[in-house]
Every structure is written in structure tokens, then in C-alpha cells.
Amino acid sequence: MTIIVAADRKYRRSPRKSLLPEKYDHQEPLEGLEGASFSGAVFNLSSTIVGAGIMALPAAVKQLGLIPGLLMIILGSTLTELSIDFILKFSRTSKSATYAGAVGDSLGSAGRTLLQVCIVVNNLGMLIVYMIIIGDVFSGTTTNNVHHKGVMEEWFGQHWWTSRISLMLFTTLLIFAPLISFKRVDSLRYTSSLSVGLAIVFVAITAGVSIAKLMDGSIGMPRLMPELIDQASFWQLFTTVPILVTAYICHHNVLPIENELKDPTQMKSIVRTSLRICSSLYIATSFFGFILFGDQTLDDVLANFDGDLGLPYSSLLDDVVRVSYGIHLMLVFPIVFFSLRLNVDGLLFPCAIPIAFNNRRFFSITVALMSFIFIGANFVPSIWDAFQLTGATAAISVGFIFPAALVLRDTCGIASNKDRVIAWLMFLLAVLSSTAAISSDIYSTYVVEKRA
């Protein structure tokens, strides 16, 4: 433990530029080390937050009812802000440049390793899901022997270059490969701003269609509270927990973004601004998505946009929604990959120099991870159940259990009584929610199989 933590202090720490120091031995400074801007950091953090989770939120609201569902989205944002405040507070006191470094100081090398494993599992799951959705959008998917055409297949017909594996290979080589080759997270600020803009396009179209259909009276009032018919329907409510938790997971990128700021004291404001932007998008998507599709809202609301919306130019609107969101995920992919690579490197080479200064290690890990994600996305038929499981375990651990543990352990002696109360509530809520979500998944699967 002493060797690993000491190495983390030596190589991976500095209140400013530990992961990317201005020079290491005789290496030249990396381009752009003058410091990241407030707006660039906001877009990078917002892009980290708004991924595939936004598409599952209308289904979560359908399960919970409109009022409890929207309140849970607000609660998730509040708890996320508090947990990130804990991470920032303890990392600054211990002079840790990474989330794992702060946990290592507090919980030792075992805690540090466990956190890194959780981040790797969570990020790998998300990135594979991103690629699956991208494949579904552009090349189509087959469910229960029914083929749903993708955008490229609709436009150009069936060809070898519109097949799923071909399109995903082109996406990997032409889009992902260049974007995941950047060694600074701030280099992704422009693609992140575009990804947030495309998410806003999706919300705007959903809201516009919903308002138009409300005005012509073709849709009614949505269900405000959950439907509790039997015990199974009650337990089903807890399956929304992983979705709500995963929607706000960005903790693994907070410190890498802070390390590159011109003024690191702005980080709390950046977090607050990003969460306000993302919460607004989530509330609008959930509200208008559930109003538009009601009880027909699918687990992935994007799948609802493959039919007639009952408005002029419905087919065009469907295509714009699907294409804009597919491109959005392509642009979110590299920023989630950034922290995945950082934590895999921390697991494999805990005592090495920063990965940004070792090209062989950087590109070897990048190629290995990208190959694993590509294979997983092409040969795993559906991993939504696994994604839900990682949300109930790895995501909850990264987002709430470890930040609460930093406060409760308090090796720096800086936690206030208020911090401890919040940490205990956060810890208990996370553990109970995780247990209930996993139990309800098992129970639902058992009931479905038994009825079948």
C-alpha cells in the first residue's frame, strides 16, 4: 500500500497539472497547457453526464408516474452535486489529482483499486451501449424476428457498407480513432459543446411535437402517480434506480477536468452549471417524452421515433431525431473513454509515469480497449440488463458510496457534522437503493420466466 500511494503522490498529484505536468524529464510540454476555460470545462462535464441515460428517463418516469419521476430527477442532481463536492474537498486537502488518488489516501490501496474497477466496469458498459445504439440508429436492429431499419438502410437500401459491422467499423476508424487519441480532456471541448447542442435539438423536437399534439387534442393527460397493481409492480419501481443514478455519473472526469483549468477554484461553479444544464434537459426530455408517448413509452424512447408521429413531415422528424442523437453519442464517446483509459492505466501501471508521456503505453491501452468495445458491441445481442446491473452496483458505488466513504473515514479531519449526516444518508440511500434494484431485477426476471 505504501508503495502504491507514494507513487500516486509522486507521479499523479499536483493541485494544477499532475497528470499532465509542464515537463517530465526531457519531454516537451503538451500542446494547450495554458489552461482550460470555464465554458470548455462546462461543456466537457455536461457531455460526460448526458449520454445514453437521457433516452431511458421517460421510461423511468412512466414507471414512477410524472410527479415522483420528475422529483427523483431533481433529487439525483442534488445528491450528485453533494457527492462531487465531497470529492473536490478531500482531493484538494490530500493534494490528489485523481478521484482514485483521494480514495487511496482515505481507504488505502484496496479502496483505490476497487474504485478503479468500478469506474472501468461502468465506463466499459456505457461505451458498449453507446456503440450498440449507434449501430441500431444507422444500420437497424432485429427484435423478436422483426427487423427495424436503420437510417442508412432506409436512405440507401441494403448494401455491404450499410451493414451493422461495416458502419461500426467506419465509425471506429474515422470518428472514434482520431477523437480518442487526444491526451488532454480539454481538447474535446468543441466536440463536447456540439454533443450538448445535439441533445438540445432532440429535446426541442420532442417538446415541439408534444406541444403540437397537445394543442390539437390528440394526446391526453399523462399518469401522475405510479400504478401499483400487485407486489411485482411495486418492486418494478426500484428498477428505475440504476437509470436515475447512471444518468448523472460524471465523477470520474471531475478531477481530470479540474487539473487542466486556468483557475481550479472555478470547479464548483462548473459542476453546478453543468448539473443545472443537464437537469433541465432531463426534466424536459422526461416530461415531453412521457406526454408524447404515454404508456407506450419504450425503455429506449429513441425507439419510439421510428413510426408515424401524426404530424406533417413525421418521417423527416424521426430521421433528424435519430441522426442527431446518434452523432451526439459519437461525440460523447471519447470523453467517457478518456477516464476509462486513465483508470485502466492506473490499475495496470500504478507506479508508472503519467500515461500522456508514454506513447507506447498510451496507444497500446487505447487500441486494446477500443478493440474490446468494438467486439462487445458487435457480438453481444443486448446488454441492457447487464447495463442495469452495472448501474445498480458500479455506478452507485462511483457516484455515492465512495464519496460518502471519504467523509465517513475523514482521514484529513476536515468533515463537518453536516457533512457526516449527509454522507450517512447518502451511503444508506445508495446501499438500500442498490439492494432493492438488484432484488427487483431478480424478482422480475423470476416472475416473467415463471409466467412464461
TrEMBL record:
The keyword Transmembrane helix applies. The chain crosses the membrane at residues 41-61, 67-88, 114-134, 161-182, 194-214, 234-254, 275-294, 323-342, 362-380, 386-409, 421-443. The keyword Cytoplasm does not apply. Residues 36-424 form the Amino acid transporter transmembrane domain. It is found in: Membrane. It is a multi-pass membrane protein. It comes from the Eukaryota. This is Amino acid transporter AVT6A-like. The gene is LOC111443403.
